[in-house]
Amino acid sequence: MPLSRRRRHLQQSCCPSKRLIFFRLIIGLPLQSFQLRAAFLAGVGLSLILLGAAAAPLLAQVEAGNLIANSGFAGARTWRELPPGWHCPAPAIPGVESSRVFLGRTPGRPEYFIFLAGGGDRGARVWCEVRGIRPHTDYLLELLAYRPKFTNQVYLEVDFGGQRRVLNQHATHGGVQPLTVRFNSGNSAGRVRLMFDNPHPEMLAFARPSLRPAPPEDRPSGDVEAGRLPAFFPIGVFAAKAEDLPDIRQAGFNAVQSYDSTPASLRRMAAECGRLGLKFLPNFRRYQADLSRELGGLPQLLGFYIEDEPELRSVPPASMAELNRSLKRDHPGALTTVAMLRPQMVAAYRHSADVFLLDPYPAPHMPLTWMSDCLAEAARHAPRERLWAIVQAFGGEKYVRDGWPRRPTYLEMRCLTFLAVVHGARGVFYFSYPEVRADAGAWQGLTKIVGHLNRLHAWLVLPPAASPLRLEMTSPFRADAAGRPAVHFAEKARGGERLLILVNVIDRPVSFFLHGFPAGVPWLEEPFLGGKAVVRDGNIREQLGPYEVRVYHYRRDG
After folding, report:
1. Does pLDDT of 9 surpass 90?
2. CA-CA distance, 320 to 307, in Å (whole number)?
3. Across the chain, what does the average pLDDT equal?
4. Helix axis angle, 410-422 relative to 370-378, nearest 10°?
5. pLDDT tens digits for 426-461?
6. What is the pLDDT of residues 82-131, one digit of tens each?
7. DSSP state, 44?
8. How far is CA 473 from the centre of its chain?
9. Residue 507 burial (C-beta neighbours within 10 Å; 0-12, 13-18, 19+)
10. Cα–Cα distances in Å, from 539 out to 74, 469, 500, 519, 534?
């Protein structure tokens, strides 16, 4: 989630060995260019190929319970020949750029990988047949993934019996990353095709695939073991320093996160937060007994921030769970938190932390509903009371190559904030203080949003309520990126009172009816604009501008 750390992670590379340099020269040629490759090999006087001696079989790898028969890619005689049981279905198409599919090794690893680079023929795919599949059964696919560089939105895809998954948690490059994906067989039974596909020209590779029946998946539980969820709604900002705290407090925030994990900084931050009435979320990614015991009992401690996007580096959930347990042994009431970008991976980490902060950063290239979609997917694996949102508040020149050429506008930040609230987030943080504070206009807009949240604070701690209201879009622009109504809404209930939040998630004006108000409700009041929405025939008729948010208060007695 932190941009500096994410960028360092995604840009890391290792020095290529001579063998890797040679390897990259070879793999730059298409699959059909065997004669050219052979000429290259002959020209440099080498008699060995990537697999070793030409007739040497690959080492077989047999794993008990693995339904993939040849997961070690044994039996291939040359690097251009797939091992028995593995198939590449695409023939060469004249005039179309050929894909590249071959066997090879990655630096420092004993396993053989199948390398895939897509061409115009869409032929960078291999498949095997898996037998003994039972219908309506969960299966766990595990594999090792490799990529020599990282390109955003470029990921290996896996198809199991017609179900496609994008392995978008694969962010490590220049090294091998273990990946896991869960499938349900549905109506498939017996023999099922398992396919690996790379539609992109960048090189991706995989090794040691394993498919086994998955252990039962725990149902989401609202209980946080030996932890405590805050009774208030955290409104926080990331990457704060001690000298920033008075400014942050004056802007209306009630919580801060800090990345400086040195003991002196942690103690200073904790002291300043206590003095100013802020809650503190310290960066605490390794167990330090003295600091844990010192900080864990402080009233200003919101929780411990124990990892940052662990799914992108395949940080073992067990190691995080052990840190979680250690912190709770010192202070049974301590809360642990982790930021995650890929919400489906909450399933793997649900026992490793108490609260998950979802951090999609959509502006300007993704729909803003990436935020609500992430919350909805994460809620399949953990209750919404354990979900907070991190709203993008950065962007600009130094982030261009990472995909964020500008920061969100005021309207986009407000839309993202209230979209998270509508979809059940129980806290909102902004990433991050240094970037947004450097722009006076952006900071002014953010403090205005924070002011609105504070005026609604008594409502924000409540979950969205069941609502009989029904939306009828009437404008030409009426759908979000997924074809749902462009207006997302939720109600919160407190006795006979109701708070209605309406969010236009697209950059076009919209109009609509909202039906279902009882006869005793003559109008709704807007606390920020001071206007009213009149109820006629049980509905209100509204118009919202691009990314506009509207909040209404009314009573629904009886």
Report:
1. no
2. 8
3. 89
4. 20
5. 999 999 999 999 999 999 999 999 999 999 999 999
6. 999 999 977 889 999 999 999 999 989 999 999 999 999 999 999 999 99
7. T
8. 30
9. middle
10. 67, 9, 13, 10, 8
In terms of DSSP bridges, do strands 100-104 and 113-117 run parallel, antiparallel, or are they unpaired?
Answer: antiparallel
Q: Which residues pair with 514 in a beta bridge?
A: 471, 540
Taken in order 139, 201, 345, 108, is the CA torsion positive or negative?
Answer: positive
Element (H, E) at 205: strand 204-213
Strand partners, 359: none
Output helix, strand, coil percentages for the chain, rounded to the nearest 5: 25, 25, 50
3-state secondary structure of 279: strand
Looking only at Cα atoms, what is the longest distance across the chain? 90
Residue in the structure block whose two tokens are 């997302």? 488
Neighbours of 463 (CB within 10 A): 12
> For 293-315, b where at least 16 C-beta lie within 10 A, e where not — what string?
eebbeeebbbbbbbbbbbbbebb
Please name the helix (run of DSSP H) or strand (run of DSSP E) that holds residue 27, with its range, or none: helix 18-27
Cis peptide before 332 (omega within 30 of 0): no
List, in sequence order, every beta strand (DSSP E) within 242-376.
Answer: 255-258, 279-282, 304-308, 336-340, 355-358
Q: From CA 279, how far away is CA 236, in angstroms rounded? A: 9
Q: What is the pTM of this model?
A: 0.87
Query: Cα-Cα-Cα-Cα dihedral of 467, 452, 258, 438, to 10°?
Result: 130
Q: Give the Å distances, CA to CA, from 465 to 40, 153, 164, 469.
A: 68, 36, 34, 11
Task: State how far Cα 20 lies from the chain centre.
Answer: 31
Q: CA angle, 498 as apex, 497 and 499 as ends, to 5°? A: 135
- Say how far apart CA 200 and CA 48 lie, in whole Å: 29
191 neighbors 69 (Cβ within 8 angstroms): no
**CA 122, CA 125: separation in Å to the nearest integer?**
8
Question: Can you state the angle between helices 410-422 and 440-455, rounded to 10 degrees?
Answer: 30
Cross-strand partners of 237: 256, 430
Q: Is the peptide bond before 98 cis (omega within 30 degrees of 0)?
A: no
